[in-house]
Amino acid sequence: MGRIVLEVKDFSFKYRQTKRKALKKISFQVEEGSFLCIIGSNGSGKSTLCNALVGLIPHYFAGKMSGQVIVDGVSTEESTIAELSPKIGLVFQNPFNQLSYTAGTVAEELAYGLGNRGIPREQMAEKVDYVSKLMRIDHILSKNPLELSGGQVQRVAFGSAFIMEPEILVLDECTTQLDPSGSEEIFDIVKDLNKKGITVIMVDHDMERVARCADKILVLDQGEAAAIDEPKKIFGNPEIVKRGIGVPDYVKLSQALKEKHYTEREIEITEGPTIEMVKEVLKI
Ligand SMILES: Nc1ncnc2c1ncn2[C@@H]1O[C@H](COP(=O)(O)OP(=O)(O)OP(=O)(O)O)[C@@H](O)[C@H]1O
């Protein structure tokens, strides 16, 4: 087992304005360099958990919390957001929430966090150049961030989180404004970053993608952690699948085949990670 970079211990949170707890006694650990996907139906607490992981809870959102989130050995409650930012960064679900609203250009927007960290100008320019090329926004560096399309803002939002080079990147449904090919492009970047050693925690509704990317999946259900396990265990477990989460097509396929009593010998299976999951569902 690898080094634990993030630990959530018995964590509960209730927003000040609501009666119901948004998160209830959540506990899990994340290994360095792994890829955790968080899934669950609307309102199950996914964004709240993201806010807690990066310290926005308790430092920004008012409410009642108990338990702990420990990032790289340090409790988020006892650190400031600025102290946490080299360790863990969030790409917001709504990319407009990521904008500083003080930068006049995309280049300034990307450099905003670096400026706060006191990075020298020359180094800043190099980082802006690298990240803008990676995110394919180098052609809009001189534009006003408020005049961009939703998809462009999403790329800028991602770039401004990534430019801070956090050890853990938390992505809360970060491609909702992008078309399918733009979305896949961002996920390819995310997978690449993960291969280079960055720990990724990603909220996503696309179960095919979740099954493809995740080392582990955390299922949230009405603020509770219903399960945390490998994709094939999650999608192969009918009890978990009942909890309002979508199911990848190959799981539906393997379940249909199972009902018709097909066996492995009768199905011509090509290679790929999903085959393991088909087998898990078929128990073959
Ligand atoms: N800023 C807030 N103030 C008060 N209550 C909030 C706030 N954000 C979320 N909640 C409440 O917390 C609960 C969990 O919401 P959350 O947004 O974390 O769920 P989610 O799983 O991310 O949903 P979705 O899939 O729709 O994004 C909901 O009952 C929601 O109304």
TrEMBL record:
Keywords: ATP-binding, Cell membrane, Hydrolase, Membrane, Nucleotide-binding, Translocase, Transport. It comes from the Bacteria. InterPro entries: AAA+_ATPase (IPR003593), ABC_transporter-like_ATP-bd (IPR003439), ABC_transpr_CbiO/EcfA_su (IPR015856), ECF_ABC_transporter_ATP-bd (IPR050095), P-loop_NTPase (IPR027417). Gene3D superfamilies: P-loop containing nucleotide triphosphate hydrolases. It is a peripheral membrane protein. GO terms for molecular function: ATP binding; ATP hydrolysis activity; ATPase-coupled transmembrane transporter activity. The keyword Transport applies. PANTHER family: ENERGY-COUPLING FACTOR TRANSPORTER ATP-BINDING PROTEIN ECFA2 (PTHR43553:SF27), HEAVY METAL TRANSPORTER (PTHR43553). This is Energy-coupling factor transporter ATP-binding protein EcfA1. It comes from Anaerostipes caccae. The gene is ecfA1_1.
